[in-house]
């Protein structure tokens, strides 16, 4: 039986904290490769949902990697502590600097965002080569100077 004027105090509900790891991968020269980001939660007692997006840094979406837009990741109650989000990386044989992108968590349901940004680094694994073509044979002679021309490619 309820009494008039009675109050009930509920304790604060602590939400599961969500974090995302950083990831690094060599870009490769053929086939496919992925940056693998791990999303972790601190509590498995309730279901959790979060939205994942990529944000370009020095890496270019569509050229260096395949963008993710509003991908939903769901953790079931009493389910896994972690889930992996993969970002496809374009392979090439171009010598270039390492490139970066960010994977961002947002719109968390039943969770707080403890670390919402994962830095992805695509490491260049290509190297430049230098080829010298030898000049035609020339007799050196007994006096003066002689010039040789090498072609570098």
Please characterize this protein's 3D structure:
The protein has no helices and 11 strands. Helix content is 0%, strand content 44%. The protein has strands at residues 16-20, 23-26, 33-41, 48-56, 71-75, 82-89, 99-109, 111-115, 117-123, 132-133, 151-152. It is rod-shaped, with a radius of gyration of 28 Å. Strands 2-9-7-4-5 form a 5-stranded mixed sheet, with no helix packed on it. A 4-stranded mixed sheet has the order 6-3-1-8, with no helix packed on it. With 153 residues, the protein is mainly β. The N and C termini lie far apart (92 Å).
Low-pLDDT segments: none
Please tell me the overall pLDDT. Answer: 87
Spatial order of strands in the largest sheet: 2-9-7-4-5
Annotation field: number of helices: 0
| Element-level helix/strand string | EEEEEEEEEEE
Computed CA radius of gyration, to the nearest angstrom: 28 Å
Distance between the termini: 92 Å
What fraction of the residues are assigned to beta strands by DSSP? 35-45%
How would you characterize the largest beta sheet? 5 strands, mixed
**What structural class is derived from the secondary structure elements?**
mainly beta
Fraction of residues in helix: under 10%
Number of strand segments: 11
In brief:
It contains no helices and 11 strands. It has strands spanning 16-20, 23-26, 33-41, 48-56, 71-75, 82-89, 99-109, 111-115, 117-123, 132-133, 151-152.
List the SSEs and their pairings:
Blueprint: E1 16-20, E2 23-26, E3 33-41, E4 48-56, E5 71-75, E6 82-89, E7 99-109, E8 111-115, E9 117-123, E10 132-133, E11 151-152
Parallel strand pairs: 1-8, 2-9
Antiparallel strand pairs: 1-3, 3-6, 4-5, 4-7, 7-9, 10-11
């Amino acid at each position: 039986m309820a009494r008039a004027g009675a109050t009930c105090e509920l304790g604060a509900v602590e939400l599961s904290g969500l974090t995302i790891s950083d990831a690094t991968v060599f870009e490769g020269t053929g086939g496919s490769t992925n940056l693998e980001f791990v999303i972790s939660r601190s509590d498995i007692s309730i279901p959790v949902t979060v939205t994942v997006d990529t944000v370009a840094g020095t890496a270019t979406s569509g050229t260096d990697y395949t963008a993710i837009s509003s991908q939903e990741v769901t953790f079931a109650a009493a389910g896994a502590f972690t889930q992996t989000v993969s970002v496809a990386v374009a392979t090439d044989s171009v010598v270039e600097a390492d490139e970066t992108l960010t994977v961002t968590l947002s719109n968390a349901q039943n969770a707080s965002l403890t670390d919402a940004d994962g830095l992805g680094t695509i490491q260049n694994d290509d190297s430049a080569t230098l080829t010298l073509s030898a000049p035609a044979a020339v007799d050196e002679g007994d006096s003066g100077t002689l010039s040789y021309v090498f072609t570098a490619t």
